[in-house]
Amino acid sequence: MIASVRGVVGHVGLDRVVVEVGGVGMLVHTTPATAAACRRGQETLLATSLVVREDSLTLYGFSGGAERDMFETVQTVSGVGPRLALAMLSVMGPDELAGAFAAGDTKALTAIPGVGAKSAQRLVLELREKVAALGAPGSPAATAVPAAAGEPWREQVAEALVGLGWSSKQAGEAVERAAAQAPADAEVSAYLRLALRELRR
């Protein structure tokens, strides 16, 4: 398995980055927050998980080993694939997910697009004990990117939220509420976290 990737960032998308490793550009799917914390032209280190299918090899990247471990753990539940696992980490993060599983907080889990009441109950039932073995997440490995002049972060964050399953209207409202709360020099990832928090209320 490819456990990590270190190299210069060649491209940054909303939920993916391309990392140049030994002359090869590796496409790595990430959470929007991890992608937002990568800067083109700078070196980054991502913990990774390789998902092998009959017709594809897909690499997923994370800011730390704890995120990767949670990504792999939630996929042990029937019906949870890599896309949903990534959405779960995009909305809550490993610490919050572990807390929700341990406390049986199905309401918090249903705030994730694609997770209904029955799915949340199954996740809690199957993962309550497993997550106890996971360690606390380390500090992010990727380089943070400040929001650019003007407010291009609004479109970035809105597109990321729509990509996670919320409607354009919900995303737009969450972006406006995040803009009212964040300091002027906040990073794109900070705006995204605030918007996600608003959508979970």
> CATH first level of the largest domain: which class?
Mainly Alpha
Kindly state the number of beta strands.
Answer: 5
Q: Whole-number average pLDDT? A: 83
Helix/strand order: EEEHEEHHHHHHHH
Side by side, the strands of the main sheet go 1-2-3-5-4
Helicity level? 40-55%
Q: What would you say the CATH architecture of the largest domain is?
A: Orthogonal Bundle
Organism: Phycicoccus endophyticus
Family: Belongs to the RuvA family.
Protein name: Holliday junction branch migration complex subunit RuvA
Domain Helix-hairpin-helix DNA-binding motif class: 72-91, 107-126
Architecture overview:
This protein is of the alpha+beta class and 201 residues long. It has three domains: 4-62, Beta Barrel (OB fold (Dihydrolipoamide Acetyltransferase, E2P)), CATH 2.40.50; 66-133, DNA polymerase, domain 1; 153-199, Ubiquitin-associated (UBA) domain (Helicase, Ruva Protein, domain 3, Orthogonal Bundle). Helices cover 44% and strands 19% of the residues. It is built from nine helices and five strands; from the N terminus they run E-E-E-H-E-E-H-H-H-H-H-H-H-H. It has a five-stranded mixed beta barrel. A hairpin with a 2-residue loop joins strand 2 (16-21) and strand 3 (24-29). The longest helix is centred in the last third of the chain and has 14 residues, at 168-181. The protein is globular. The chain starts with a strand and ends with a helix. The model is unreliable at 136-150 (pLDDT under 50). It is found in: Cytoplasm.
